[in-house]
């Protein structure tokens, strides 16, 4: 498989993560290191004396000699704090972990290294008390927006502060709310969710506060409301923006006074719940339109949390797809894998339904392509049309950017000179965005690292560190 099939994993504004590589000398070992570097990681020869926290993964190459790496595997087994193990080649006897066949499959290599990286990050943060490890399991992704979200949740979870989760439909707002609950001191108490937009206005008060027997027609017995059921725990009010105005007044009183009455009763009941609300609506616009109370908004918006739409964190798509496929496999479905071309096509799609749409698509594909590799042609036709993907394109021909329309000047243009200047500008910009890391810039320009180095020599372009040294 050519390097062009692989996608870059690291962002330019973060340090390059280290991957330890243990292998015998040879062409395959050199190629493995080149692939690891091209994917945005820093391949470093394994050294048992190095600090354990230095690397995010340990790749052991067993090609042609499964027993040759026995000492390295024994070292890993004896060091629980060692980074996750990824074996490339033959599977050693008694091995438990991630194994990649040779030649490497792009999507599987990406996912293996990303899982190792995420696990290492969560382990370090949990041991230092910064980040509860459950967050990494509940909120899948390595994008900057997801990292910020996990940090916000870790900070607010230990308090009883009211949280307002905002985001488009399908972004996982209830998952965020449950993550806050399970990271909080209330984790052993109930987490109760209610969709304010799915309950008729005349029933919502009874649903939230409960009712006494005979309070209204059909109330044959007394019934606890959601506030009572969530006592000591967390109450999640989903789609709070759809709550009727009269109900907003009553909710505001409960939030202020921490007391309520069941429908049909005049006896006040104390409530001890942590309230988390969520909405896909612009509540400030709703306030201007008279559909939402301003005083309730400020009471709920003590700690706002924004969940990014999937189109703004497309680098999370491979991990999310793998997560949903693994979940279906645990439920008895066949395991599916996405080809490099399919992953590229998913990155071109706009995802109006966000993470929920991706989860539904993976479930559909698990039925249509059981225990197989999903190719571009297996994806929904409507998705491919909206992503402007041609079924006749190969994996390498599918590009992640659309070509802009360019007008030809009336007096013509020196095309060779124009393209040379354009190429030079793009190379300079790519190197600047990549912080001078040639491998990262090469990925952004969709070319081999060696090709980029040759073009840099051609145009006399130096990396920042080279320019500084000279």
UniProtKB/TrEMBL annotation:
- PROSITE patterns this protein is in? SIGMA54_INTERACT_1, SIGMA54_INTERACT_2, SIGMA54_INTERACT_3, SIGMA54_INTERACT_4
Q: Which Gene3D superfamilies match?
A: 1.10.8.60, Homeodomain-like (1.10.10.60), P-loop containing nucleotide triphosphate hydrolases (3.40.50.300)
Q: Which Pfam families match?
A: AAA_lid_14, HTH_8, Sigma54_activat
SUPFAM superfamilies hit by this protein: Homeodomain-like (SSF46689), P-loop containing nucleoside triphosphate hydrolases (SSF52540)
Database matches in PANTHER family: PTS-DEPENDENT DIHYDROXYACETONE KINASE OPERON REGULATORY PROTEIN-RELATED, TRANSCRIPTIONAL REGULATORY PROTEIN
Q: Which InterPro entries match?
A: AAA+_ATPase, AAA_lid_NorR, Homeodomain-like_sf, HTH_Fis, P-loop_NTPase, Sigma_54_int, Sigma_54_int_dom_ATP-bd_1, Sigma_54_int_dom_ATP-bd_2
Q: Which GO terms describe its biological process?
A: regulation of DNA-templated transcription
Cite the Sigma-54 factor interaction domain residue spans from the record.
139-367
The protein depicted here goes by the name: Sigma-54 factor interaction domain-containing protein
Which controlled-vocabulary keywords does the entry list?
ATP-binding, DNA-binding, Nucleotide-binding, Transcription, Transcription regulation
Q: Which GO terms describe its molecular function?
A: ATP binding; sequence-specific DNA binding
